[in-house]
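precorrin-2 dehydrogenase: structure, please.
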Amino acid sequence: MRLSGRRVLVVGSGQAAAAKQRLLEAAGARVDLVAQVGPLHGYALVFGTSGDDACDRTVSEAARAAGIPVNVVDRPELSDFIMPAVVDRGEVVIGISTGGGSPILAQRIRALIEDALPNGIDRLAAFARRFRSAVQTRVADNATRRRFWERFFDGEGADLVMAGEDYRAARKIIRDLNAADATRSGEGSLTVIELVSNNSDDLTLGALRALRKADVIAHDADVAAEILDYARRDARRVDLDAMLPQGARVVVLRSMFTAKRAGAAQ
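Here you go.
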């Protein structure tokens, strides 16, 4: 949520209130810190940080009555939105949430992600922002544009940016944009994955890579949601007997474990 220049109310005191104030001011908000809730006109968000049940309930009820989103620390039932643990690398920001169930677990996950992210990842995001309009102008089709960026992030251009060679990376992406194949959608592909179980831990690395790149997922009804969730959210999901589109990256998921169970029953 964009908060730059907008008023936000924090009700409470102590470390929890101070932490919220720092976070909100870093986002550019104009923060009012008070001990008790008062008139709420003009506020974009309201936070309850007192830790006192009666006070926090009053804050929540007042904000909801005024139609203003409210967050009460460690009280998801009194909140309209959550505050995730955040990994902030400049242009790259990652939020981790447990739905308010375990903030400590979210912090542990944040530490794991911070350790995994390479230094300079924010440079890559900033570079992509610089050339986003140029790529959109040159490559109008969404699917083709996705493949263009995939080639860039997987190739020499991204390596140059990460190494601080922005000038060479800029020349590289300009050459790629001017190349004849920049506006070509590329060839489609068909990957058939025979699932031995509905446990996502049994997926091979190759299967995971194929799922994450697929434009279309064709599967039978027995495939578990935890496996389908590895695909992109914008990937189409169709039945196995559906007509498959040309030029798309298609992954077919077949539940072989169902056939084994049926054979065993006979």
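Notes: The mean pLDDT is 88.
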